[in-house]
């Protein structure tokens, strides 16, 4: 951990080191269900979390937080300079869609449009502009909104 100056004093700066690099790569990923269909509940969110955590290590990714609203999910994750972000994003979309269809087909049947589960697009934001604590709080509040 290195320290960085802030107006309030010094904060810890979460840096990783590689053979020839020092980096801090944190991202906020939002995946949306096709046509914003409201399919996520707590059980499906936990299943999706299990699927994503199951293959994140294969891509050099550490999942920091994952929450879902009824029609989209938020992932906060940490990557390495060699992480292929496009592959990491598209693999969970494909793998989770197949597993969700297999495990929760009855729950999502009337909400699906053909074979698609996820929208084709996604939103990926580097989190260097705000602290991870602020983002974690935002993502955690998505669940609270879902419970309302």
UniProtKB/TrEMBL annotation:
SUPFAM superfamilies: Transposase IS200-like. Transmembrane segments: none annotated. GO terms for biological process: DNA transposition. Residues 22-142 form the Transposase IS200-like domain. One of its GO terms (molecular function) is transposase activity. Pfam families: Y1_Tnp. This is IS200/IS605 family transposase. It comes from Haloarcula nitratireducens. The gene is tnpA.
């Amino acid at each position: 951990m290195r320290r960085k100056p802030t107006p309030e004093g010094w904060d810890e700066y979460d840096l990783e080191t590689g053979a020839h690099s020092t980096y801090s790569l944190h991202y906020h990923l939002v995946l949306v269900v096709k046509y914003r269909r409201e399919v996520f509940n707590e059980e499906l969110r936990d299943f999706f979390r299990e699927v994503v955590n199951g293959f994140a290590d294969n891509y050099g990714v550490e999942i920091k937080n994952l929450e879902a609203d009824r029609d989209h999910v938020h992932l906060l994750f940490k990557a390495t300079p060699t992480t292929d972000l496009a592959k990491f994003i598209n693999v969970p979309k494909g793998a989770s869609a197949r597993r969700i269809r297999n495990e929760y087909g009855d729950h999502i049947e009337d909400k699906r449009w053909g074979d698609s589960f996820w929208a084709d697009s996604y939103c990926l934001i580097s989190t260097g502009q705000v602290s991870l604590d602020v983002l974690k709080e935002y993502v955690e509040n998505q669940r609270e909104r879902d419970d309302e």
